[in-house]
Write a structure and sequence with these properties.
single chain; alpha/beta; Rossmann fold; globular
């Protein structure tokens, strides 16, 4: 049984994330969507809130072989603990590649069996990022084209509270 990990901050989850989850779920027997803590990026949602949004997304989208977890440590430690075979990363644009390549090489150096597979985003999501969604929401813009309707209220409410 092949297990893959799709790590990210998912702050918040977007249609771009869901598209990568959908494709990776078809490629592997088991996919773990891992909410990772990135000390360099301030989060708008807690780890538990992000896990809850992803768990709801997995259930609503019917991804039977996908589970959601979180980690505040090194990805490679989680990779080894979960006995994963592959790390999945999404690429939106050429600019993502340099950073993602560096991460893949570092993970491979830390664990020789850590393979990373890159999935190129669909063209319609190449510009989409959680940071962009947060910025639009913070200014009261319409983010309904970027996140599922069932998450829309939670995301906009979070940013409306910040404006008050």
């Amino acid at each position: 049984m092949k297990t893959a990990i799709y790590p990210g901050s998912f702050d918040p989850v977007t249609y771009g994330h869901i598209e990568i989850i959908s494709r990776a779920a078809k490629l592997f027997d088991r996919l773990i969507v891992l909410v990772s803590v990135n000390m360099l990026k301030p989060a708008s949602f807690t780890v538990e809130e992000r896990k809850k949004m992803l768990t709801e997304t997995v259930a609503r989208e019917g991804f039977a072989n996908v589970e959601v977890d979180s980690s505040d440590g090194l990805l490679i430690d989680y990779f080894n603990k979960s006995k994963a075979d592959v790390i999945v990363r999404g690429l939106r644009a050429i600019s993502d590649f340099e950073y993602e390549f560096q991460m893949a090489q570092t993970n491979r150096r830390l664990c020789y069996k850590a393979e990373t597979i890159f999935l190129a985003s669909k063209t319609e999501y190449t510009y989409l990022s959680s940071s962009m969604v947060k910025q639009i929401a913070a200014f009261g813009g319409d983010i309904s084209d970027f996140v599922p309707e069932y998450l829309l209220g939670r995301i906009t409410e979070r940013f409306n509270k910040r404006k008050d």
